[in-house]
Design brief:
The protein is mainly α. It contains four helices and no strands. Bound molecules: protoporphyrin IX containing FE.
Length: about 150
């Protein structure tokens, strides 16, 4: 089971690192301040490559490995419910960054930099909150809907 947790944490590191890198890459590319992708081609930008070949596969692996650990552990504590609620926020940020990749590929001049800041800060806050929740495991009373 330990190797599953190691795969989970390694995938999480790739996922969060790429979600933090992408807003910087998109902002740098749209401001022409990066040599990585001076002229991003539609449907073929460096940001799209990072999103489709690193961020998304890492997200899927993190979620699958975490779900298997969850099923094997049968953990239903309040902190895990709180953690998974925060993780769904990270999944929404992931999707919005995907939209930002497409928007940045469209013709020049599309205002993406403010959204890069909003999403980078959101990913930072969510990642720190998730890691704190899973390491501190706060005792949270979750009222069961079954009464
Ligand atoms: C749907 C997605 C996820 C599921 C189902 C999931 C599930 C789990 C489970 C069941 C554990 C074992 C907890 C324990 O019993 O100690 C775990 C550990 C961990 N998870 Fe996740 N997780 C998910 C996403 C994430 C994300 C997005 C992060 C970070 C941003 C993360 C960070 C961690 C860390 C750091 C540990 C190790 C905790 C420890 O060693 O005590 N997980 N995860």
């Amino acid at each position: 089971m330990l190797w599953l947790l190691v795969i989970h944490i390694a995938a999480v590191l790739f996922w969060c690192a790429s979600l933090l890198y992408l807003p910087a890459l998109i902002a740098g590319t749209s401001a022409g301040r990066t040599h990585i992708d001076p002229t991003p081609k539609r449907h073929d930008s460096a940001a799209r490559f990072v999103f489709t070949h690193i961020a998304t596969p890492a997200a899927l692996l993190a979620i699958v490995a975490g779900s298997v650990v969850f099923l094997l552990n049968r953990t239903t504590d309040g902190w895990l419910i709180a953690k998974l609620t925060l993780v769904s926020g990270l999944v929404i940020a992931h999707s919005l960054i995907g939209l930002l990749v497409m928007r940045a590929e469209e013709e020049e001049g599309k205002r993406v930099v403010p959204w890069c800041w909003v999403l980078a800060i959101s990913v930072c806050v969510l990642t720190l909150a998730i890691v704190w929740t899973v390491l501190a495991k706060p005792v949270l009373e979750i009222t069961s809907w079954a009464g």
